Amino acid sequence: MMIEVLKSKLHCVTVTEANLNYMGSITIDEDLMDAANLIAGEKVQIVNNNNGERFDTYIIKGDRGTGCVCLNGAAARKVQVGDVVIIIAYALMEFEEAKKFVPTVVFPKKGNLL
């Protein structure tokens, strides 16, 4: 049996930009991506702590060291610059593997820096 479990989480990052005129996705500082074991194109769930919105999108690499967390396209309507969001990625794995799996959880500092 396969189950879906938490793989990676960026906990409480601040939205630095919202770009409505982009095709879609979330742009994340590549340093944050590396720290959380996330890759470009990966599906993520975004949870907005300020307004309760929950939605899915995919990742685009942002410039390293910038702290960039930019929601693009339609997702830009679900956030405002300054909102605090949680970025979550899940993985499918066998039940026994999941029991032993340890997710990567990152708690960035002010400015979304590590």
UniProtKB/TrEMBL annotation:
Family matches, as CDD domains: Asp_decarbox
Pfam families: Asp_decarbox (PF02261)
Record-listed Pyruvic acid (Ser) modification sites: S25
Main location: cytoplasm
Catalysed reactions, semicolon-separated: L-aspartate + H(+) = beta-alanine + CO2
Active site: S25, Y58
Record Gene3D superfamilies: 2.40.40.20
Family from the record: Belongs to the PanD family.
Known partners and oligomeric status: Heterooctamer of four alpha and four beta subunits.
Identification of the protein by name: Aspartate 1-decarboxylase
Organism: Segatella maculosa OT 289
Gene that this sequence comes from: panD
